[in-house]
Amino acid sequence: LLLPVTLLPRLLGMAGAAYAMVAIAATLGLLFAGVLFDRQKTAAGARRVLLATVLYLPIVLLVLVVDRRAT
After folding, report:
1. Tens digit of each residue's pLDDT, the chain (71 residues)
2. What CA–CA distances, in Å, run from 11 to 4, 20, 64?
3. Are 20 and 27 contacting, i.e. CB atoms less than 8 angstroms apart?
4. DSSP symbol at 69
5. For the chain, how far is it from start to end, CA to CA, in angstroms?
6. Which residues have CB under 8 Å from 27's CB, separation 6+?
């Protein structure tokens, strides 16, 4: 569900291809962190998921702003 919602600005013409690529990469990174944590539930894995979620939104929003100005 996260990936389609993240790609909505691209599909609505509000962002370009650079945003779409970064959004896909960030979403896959977040998914990867979650899958790793699901396989081996450790404190380090939990911290990795927390870090991924804390970094995800600022990265995606920053690229959205930058890509919107570029188009």
Report:
1. 899 999 999 999 999 999 999 999 999 999 999 999 999 999 999 999 999 999 999 999 999 999 877 65
2. 9, 9, 13
3. no
4. H
5. 26
6. 2, 3, 6, 56
Check if the beta carbon of residue 67 is closer than 8 Å to that of residue 18. Answer: yes
pLDDT confidence of residue 1: 86
Computed on alpha carbons and rounded to an integer, the radius of gyration of the chain in Å comes to: 14
37 in Cβ contact with 48 (< 8 Å): yes
Record the pTM. 0.86
Q: Cβ(47)–Cβ(10) under 8 Å?
A: no
Q: What is the C-alpha separation between 42 and 65, in angstroms, rounded? A: 35
Q: Compute the Cα dihedral for 71, 10, 22, 43 and give only its sign.
A: positive
How far is it, in rounded angstroms, from Cα 31 to Cα 70?
Answer: 28
